[in-house]
Amino acid sequence: MSDDIRNVDLPDSEPQTSDTDAEIIARATGQRRGRSNAPKSNPKSGASRKASRKRFKKQVKSTVSGWRKAGRIFLWLLMAVVSAGMFISGFSGHIAPASVKWVAFPPMTFPGWLIALILLTVLSAFTYRKPLLLALVTWIGCLHPILEYSPLNFSTPSPKDYPASQRFTFLTYNVANLNDLTGNYDGDVNTTLSYIMRTNADIVSLQEAVSPAVSGPKHITPEQVDSLHALYPYIIMYGRSQMIMSKFPVTVVHTGEAEMAAALRSKSAGSDDLVKPTAEIAVFRVDVRGTPITVFDLHLQSYNLSGDDKSLYREITDIKDAEKVKELKSTISQVRKSLLTKVHEAAVLRQADTERLEQLIAHYGGPNIIVAGDFNDVPGSYVINRLENIGFRQVYTEVGFGPMITFNANRFYFRIDHVLYRGALRPLRMVRGGSRASDHYPLLTTFAISKQDK
Fold this sequence. Notes:
The protein is of the alpha+beta class and about 450 residues long. The protein folds into two domains: about 55-150; about 160-454, Deoxyribonuclease I, Chain A, CATH 3.60.10.10. Helix content is about 45%, strand content about 15%. Strands 3-4-2-1-12-11 form a six-stranded mixed sheet. It is elongated and about 125 Å long.
């Protein structure tokens, strides 16, 4: 019995943790599939991608470097052009307009070149600093015309430093024939006369003036006329349209009526053509508390722009559409040619006027002189330089701060009204009035007379 039991085949007992054949096969098959689907690592493929990234970075760096280099060259070129513009516009006023045709125009462009220099200097300081060397040379080389156009007098003498007996005020004003160009006659009285009397200036020098008589169209009332004569016992009308009003005694020394019709040969014109002096130059002597002061009241040749010229200029400066600019390209070219011609012709006439003015100064001047009025020319012009060469100094350059304009019409924003002086006078203050009755702003200057030179 025991043998039978030993010979019986008993079923194998499988452990609980064993897998079936099917599961083993399935798992093995799945692992093989997983291995076959898994990405095979390729050392060559990884190196290729790294090289590609390096090439891309190198190309980007090369492109950026190229653009940076081009930008630096462009900045250098811009700085060179602006530097040349600064020197030409700042110093061409020393050349006689009759000798070189184009020299009268650059001084008018000086403000634009100065703005460009400021912008390029700032740009270079924050981007590429090498052009700053050229900028520095330009700033130093053009310092005189820069401060002439935009003086930086942070402090000026106080009128309180001088006793009232040594001070006087001087007003120069192109009054546009006493019309109010805005058409706004406040209080139904003449706007310009009201402004003049409010300033209470001791001496008033007027251009484009008319006799201050009662006038309905100009809104000049009898009360205004009476007040004006009470304030200014000395009122003298002379020349075509100039007037002097003064609280101090005035003597007329010279009026320009005779020479307006006479021909004056311009010595520097270099031709046999007769150049007529078109300026109104009047000379009078004012006794300011015992000190004689010779005043030259000027109204120099204008640019003679017609109404059509001015309206076309306004139209062009209003254009914002590029297509419109293309349409008016030929017109703009004609305007530029016409404008340059008129600027040159007017400058040649002012050159002749300046030569005549120098003769009058030499003949009538005296120790203390004021030359003031409507010069129709900008700082740095030939007229201003000639006067500075014979010892005159600009008041605004001495006491002003920042740029200033005195003409306010037709978008010709320039400083063309000036006051210059020589002798025992010291400017203390210059104030530009805000009245827009005329196309010029008034200029009110406070002078002091040096006691030791009285």
